[in-house]
Amino acid sequence: MQNKYTPVILKSGKDQSLKRFHPWVFSGAIKKIKGPAAEGDVVAVYSNHDEFLGLGHYQIGSIAVRIFSFTEVEPDIHFWREKLQQAYRLRKSLGLSDSENTNVYRLVHAEGDGMPGVIIDFYNGTAVMQFHSIGMYQIRMELAQILKEIYGDKLKAVYDKSEKTIPFKSKIEAKDGYLLGHSEATEVLEYGNRFKVDWERGQKTGFFVDQRENRRLVEEYSKGKSVLNMFCYSGGFSFYAMRGGAKLVHSVDSSAKAIDLTKENVELNFPDDPRHEAFATDAFEFMTDIKNKYDLIILDPPAFAKHRDAIHHALQGYKKLNARAFEQIKPGGIVFTFSCSQVVSKEKFREAVFSAAAISGRQVRVVDQLSQPADHPVNIYHPEGEYLKGLILYVE
To answer: Catalytic site residues?
Structure first.
């Protein structure tokens, strides 16, 4: 073993997933660690027969190592510069970095871009970074400087929003703040629609970038329809529906702040438009008595399960929520339903929705199957990266 990094030796037979380029090493697969390994350290992973398998960041928890290279390299600033440049080249090839009507997109999608534990979203001149890995968090300033090199004058600020995402078992106390420059909450464009984004106080990095293409689909389905947007957050689906010609749109969220943001965004795009109304109330309560009121219902709840031990309750939640929508929607109505829980598989989510259809007693057909957009790429060797699952359903 010539590698200078602390060796992590796997048990016999536990090297197969890494040989198939899966980037996670689980703690139960480790036979021994030959030397010191603090959280965030770069470690070298070997088979039980001294075969090099990959370099990654060590962390305390079920996922013990997140692999960022399957070859023996020096993970210096040149290495990470090439990673970020590759991510940027992909977005450029998708037409996102130079688009005139869209200036918000995801630049780095963790394992999907070979940078486990890192999310970077670009908001009209501000890059918002979010770290789920101590190893990546420790090089945040280097990454910010590389972003400035890549974007030049297009980049006004880099904001780190990792206070609530850094692994809780670590001793690092992250604080949200600017790494480079400074910028206020800003307006962004998505397919010509205007959004107010507040990365300092908003959810996630400030906006749900991953529903861009699905919002545009809602626009196509909305002409002449009465639309209900549940769990609306900033109202994205709502004003896409309005632009698509919906005759009325109702937005619902339990958060009064979300409703205020929705109203603000609707006004940006459709000032004084009487078709829209917003309600700050519980989703299940709102959907108790809306029989035959809506032609199109959007169900985009927050993650019902963030950990595997919550999967059962999450599936029950999806089943209850979708059954309620199926029971209440007008005959011939359309339901857009989503799960953003990574630990809930596509198959389990479908089973919950299919069970909901059976409970409702309605005839339900799958019209389309939805996922995340191209700027949220999925590493083909890491299917867990496909976290967003959706169905368009026609209800007789």
So the answer is: 340
